[in-house]
């Protein structure tokens, strides 16, 4: 009987982890760029949602603050980048975003448009992404802690979900 209970708990935890992963992935995909296009060196990006992360204009605001540039100029530069790198169609099923390529292309484009050193832009993007990951991790931890407190999950299940996200087994692990 214990063996059957362990199997049931394991399956339940896996189903919950997948469910949470899909939810976290859905949230993350709203803020995650798509894969680079195979045609030329263009980088694909969902037109309005991804380059600005979270609240509309947040990436522009964060970059403007880090680079010491007017936010309107950064917003215009991001729009120019997004417009030049709109996807031709849906990415191939199962392809993963190449964040490094997208960030490199974005840093190069912003640096050129804003007249700023590309390394400075790249560093700012990296810092912003790291801060976003910290926020996503905190949100996930809060949700899992609430689920444990409510009795929806055990602490072991919450720990398993956290570990799965950290290892990239399920979405929400960031870049």
Report on the architecture of this protein:
This protein is mainly alpha-helical and 175 residues long. It has six helices and no strands.
Report the count of strand segments.
0
| Proportion in helices | 55-70%
Order of helices and strands: HHHHHH
Radius of gyration: 19 Å
**What's the end-to-end separation, in Å?**
42 Å
**Structural class based on helices, strands and sheet pairing:** mainly alpha
Count of helical stretches: 6
User: Beta-sheet strand percentage?
Assistant: under 5%
Shape: elongated
**Could you report the average pLDDT, rounded to the nearest whole number?**
75
Regions with little confidence, pLDDT below 50 for 5+ residues: 24-54
Largest sheet data: none
SSE blueprint and pairings:
Layout: H1 2-29, H2 58-67, H3 71-84, H4 99-114, H5 118-150, H6 155-166
Helix pairs in contact: 1-6, 2-3, 2-5, 3-4, 4-5, 5-6
In short:
Helix content is 65%, strand content 0%.
Which terms summarize this structure?
elongated; mainly alpha
């Amino acid at each position: 009987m214990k063996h059957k209970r362990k199997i049931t708990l394991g399956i339940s935890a896996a189903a919950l982890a997948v469910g949470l992963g899909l939810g976290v992935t859905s949230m993350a995909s709203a803020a995650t760029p798509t894969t680079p296009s195979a045609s030329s060196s263009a980088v694909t990006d969902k037109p309005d949602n991804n380059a600005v992360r979270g609240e509309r204009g947040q990436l522009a605001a964060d970059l403007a603050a880090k680079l010491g540039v007017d936010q309107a100029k950064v917003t215009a530069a991001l729009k120019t980048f997004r417009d030049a790198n709109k996807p031709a169609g849906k990415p191939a099923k199962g392809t993963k975003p190449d964040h490094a390529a997208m960030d490199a292309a974005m840093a190069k484009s912003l640096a050129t448009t804003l007249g700023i050193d590309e390394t400075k832009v790249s560093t700012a993007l990296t810092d912003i992404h790291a801060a976003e990951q910290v926020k996503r991790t905190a949100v996930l931890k809060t949700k899992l802690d609430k689920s444990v407190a409510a009795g929806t999950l055990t602490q072991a299940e919450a720990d398993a979900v956290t570990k799965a996200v950290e290892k990239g087994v399920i979405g929400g692990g960031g870049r």
